[in-house]
Each structure stands twice: as structure tokens, then as C-alpha cells.
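Example for reference:
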Amino acid sequence: MTNPEKVLITAGHEVGGLTAFAEGLSEGFTVLGIPSEVISPNEIFKRWRDLRDAKVLKILSTTAVFAAPFARRVMVLTSCCMLSSSLTRNQWELQMWAKIYSPAENNP
């Protein structure tokens, strides 16, 4: 797959490590020459065109995970696991729910 034309990253609340992580990730993509934007999880469904565009890489936080089944070229970062859109939708859902409901020691 080719490099994305743009990266859209959802952050968490204003206070906390996830926002700092998202901003650092965004800076890294900028250094690589790929434009990126950090938005609030509440704004993800307002960005429907970007959500469906395969040229835009979406990196979603736990709060925005419910947008993942509608997105193309998406990664979901949670505290325990990372999921990728390279899986089929059913495989993705099974992996997500298995990780959510399995004990923490099984989630590196």
C-alpha cells in the first residue's frame, strides 16, 4: 500500500497522555512529509469524507473505536491492543471483543 496523503488522529481528553501521544505522532508524520491532524473523538463522524477515504490513514483512540467499522485504512489504538483494517470486518470484531474481554495478562 502507498503512503497516505494525510493522517487523521483522534486524541483523548485535553488532560492526559493520549493527547500528548497523538500530538507526538502527528509531529512524526509531519517530519516524514505527510500532513496530519489531531481531532477530538467527537468530531470523527463530522469528517465522513476523510473517514471513508482510503488515501487518509485514520488512527483512532478508544473513544472513537465505534467509527472503525465505517472507515477505510484505519488503525485503532487502545491501552491494551492495536487493531488494523487489514482484517476483514468479522475478524476485526472478533479480535476486538476477544481483547476487550480477555484478562489483562493476555494482552501485551
Observations:
- The CA atoms of residues 61 and 77 lie 5 Å apart.
